[in-house]
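[job 0412] stage=complex_fold ligand=zinc ion status=START
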Amino acid sequence: MHYNSDVGVRILGIESSCDETAAAVVEDGARLLSSVVASQVATHRPYGGIVPELASREHLRAIVPIVGQALVEAGSSLRDLRAIAVTHGPGLVGSLLVGLTYAKALALSLRIPLIPVNHLEGHIHAVLLEEGTRQGAEIEFPALALVVSGGHTMTLVARRSGNRFQYTVLGKTRDDAAGEAFDKVAKLLALGYPGGPIIDRLAPHGDAAAVRFTPPKIKGNPLDFSFSGIKTAVLRYVQAQAMAEEIERRREALRTQPAAPLEWYLRMCDRRTLDLVASFQAAVVEDLVSRSVAAARQHDVRSLIVSGGVACNSLLRRRFRRLPPADAMPVYFPSPALSTDNAAMIAAAAYPKYLENESAGLDVPADAGLAL
Ligand code: KG4
Ligand code: ZN
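[job 0412] stage=complex_fold status=DONE, emitting structure tokens
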């Protein structure tokens, strides 16, 4: 990404909206000097989902060493920083507060601007950051962005005018986020946590056409998403096929084997389970792709940006890269490390705001439901 710029501007990004404590140093919005992420997966794994109180406690433990590590890895000292960027929403309020409070203290003591960033805007900038690092053609705007993670599923149009970006939300989930559906189905089938990565690796071993799922009927905005129906359909299938015994066997075995290798899963899953997993993934991916393409068509965009944890999904990447000629356009994904939550995307999103002197007072609140 090329900005009308100032050079050598190092921004420290801090992200703590969900279950990852992250810090990163990015120079001029395009050079990634460091990106450190402390994952809490092991803490939440026994519960099969994120426990908000535990998340806040882990952020408190991690924030100081993680920021320190990001500075060391970037070869930077606090004095080299020109601004502190921090996620102020949306997310879990207790988690957000840890990063935000620490960022405020740093900005105050260093007397540099505090730049609050919307987490969703951050996910989009993960792509712009990496495209800025690669030399070549710039991403063309307007772009259709699909942000798809454990907490969010939405499409939006991103427009750019110089250093300013403007977003219009086109569709969002009415109930579960797509990543949440992956996690809940994995929990139901005793495949461990988080569900997305393991379902992604198991799906090629099953037949994606074996189980039919009816696409959700959505009244009102046809660009909205809904993933709670497919989760219930999986539950019904499990009951109808009497799969409980096999699932219980896996659940019991997983207690002593929390991060099992793929071979273990393949031994522990029968054909019905593999077919079900493959069919579930195909249905969710098809839904994400078709609604994004419909949104792109309606708004005459020039490129597609897909970001968020679920953007790691191999089938999703393949399907977007092989759109039929009538819908084909340049598609951009972040590398897997910058698809999931990280602070580099927050520092990158803050750079154009820095250039426009957009900073906040120390009274900026954490906003769990912050809209874009
Ligand atoms: O962006 P992220 O790290 O955190 C949120 O903001 O939610 O996304 C985490 C989500 C989880 O639900 C996880 O299951 C999902 O992303 N995920 C995947 C894959 N890798 C992570 N879903 C499908 N396929 C994957 N390969
Ligand atoms: Zn996220």
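Residues 84 and 106 are 7 Å apart (CA to CA).
[job 0412] exit 0
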